[in-house]
Amino acid sequence: MAPTEKSITVVIPARNEEALLARTVEAALAAARALARRPGAHLDDTPVEILVVDNASTDGTAESLRALVLGAGVRLVGCGEPKAACARNLGAALAQGRILVFVDADTLMPVDALSRIAQLCDEEGYEGGFTGLSSLEGGVKAQLWWIFWEHVRALPIARAKAMSALMFVTRAVFDELGGFHEGRTLGEEWSILAGLYKKRPARFAYDRTLTAMTSSRRMELQPFGYARVLLQYVRVVLSPDADVRYSDAIRGQAA
Predict the structure, then answer these.
(1) CA–CA separation, 179 vs 56, rounded Å?
(2) Model confidence over 216-255: pLDDT tens digits?
(3) Cα separation of 21 and 64, whole Å?
(4) pTM for this structure?
(5) What is the pLDDT of residues 191-216, one digit of tens each?
(6) Rounded to whole angstroms, how far apart are CA atoms 107 and 90?
């Protein structure tokens, strides 16, 4: 039997993520099977492909996926550049789907995520957007952080369309807007999300009926991490040419 034609591609960039990546991919697999209404199906029998882009990992990231690659049909490719934007763009270049879903390696999509994204794009006419986010680890500070961002991201401002741990865009819009900004570490998604919101705000979806669980480790594992990350975002918003760099020390860890 020929593989099912792919309408959705899930792209997961991963650099030194052996501790968290398998859970992220398993969640994406569950969402693919829910869309196909075929529990336990191989990806060949769903309209979804899952593409993990290992961007210059130095740990066991690739090895952590061996069973899922061999048994479930997950695709694993390498990217020589350590930047997540480069990995996402490479994944998009290799993708077969007309809808591109980008999920961070430390983020668990809900089981109905791909079904809802397909509905938003194919039935309701949206061209891109993102979902709600909540803390994977729990804790008061982390929960307050994501509640704060829930309100910020709803503001009618293009650069408020940030924190894109789970986002989607049609292939046509991705090609129109030029993909992720490879010169940035923070705000690399603005070329797509802010670009779409500026051009066609009615086609941008912030769907809070979906909530992805994402790690708060960037804030939890740095001294004064919540304040530091907030100031970094403020800096980039106020100065478009500013950028930040993250240490690899927090990769592959849970908060």
Answers:
(1) 20
(2) 888 887 788 889 888 888 887 777 666 666 555 555 555 4
(3) 8
(4) 0.93
(5) 999 999 999 999 999 999 999 999 98
(6) 20
